Amino acid sequence: MKELVEVMAKALVEHPEEVVVTETVKGGETIVELKVAPSDMGKVIGKQGRIAKAIRSVVKAAASREDKKVIVEIQ
Fold first, then answer.
1. Contact yes or no for 29/55 (Cβ under 8 A)
2. How much is the pLDDT for 44?
3. What crossing angle do the helices spanning 2-12 and 50-65 adopt, rounded to 10°?
4. What are the TM regions of this chain, as residue ranges (predicted)?
5. How many domains does the chain have?
6. CATH number at residue 57
7. What is this structure's pTM?
8. Which helix (H) or strand (E) holds 7?
9. Lower Cβ count inside 10 Å, N or C end of the chain?
10. CB neighbour burial string for 14-44, b if at least 16 within 10 angstroms, e if fewer
11. d(Cα 11, Cα 65) in Å, to the nearest integer?
């Protein structure tokens, strides 16, 4: 899931070298944290959070194929 989030985020931002994705497992769920440059935050979140919601939907669909629960946090 980490690679999926990283590819999507790098495609959206102007500074792809500053994209950092970390993945941690707590209990039965995986938490994927996405950090981008402050100037790129708006591009990752989108108007009214639409892009962030779309990223979460794609990751959730990919995780459901593997019977996993994944949470995407944007920091």
1. no
2. 95
3. 150
4. none
5. 1
6. 3.30.300.20
7. 0.90
8. helix 2-12
9. C
10. eeeeebebeeeeeeeebbbbbebbeebeeeb
11. 24
Tokens read off for 30: 């995986």
**For 1-36, how does the pLDDT look when each residue is reduced to its tens digit (9 = 90+)?**
999 999 999 999 999 999 999 999 998 899 999 999
For the segment 48-72, what is each residue's pLDDT rounded down to a tens digit? Answer: 999 999 999 999 999 999 899 999 9
DSSP state letters, 14-73: S-GGG-EEEEEEETTEEEEEEE--GGGHHHHH-GGGHHHHHHHHHHHHHHHHTT-EEEEE
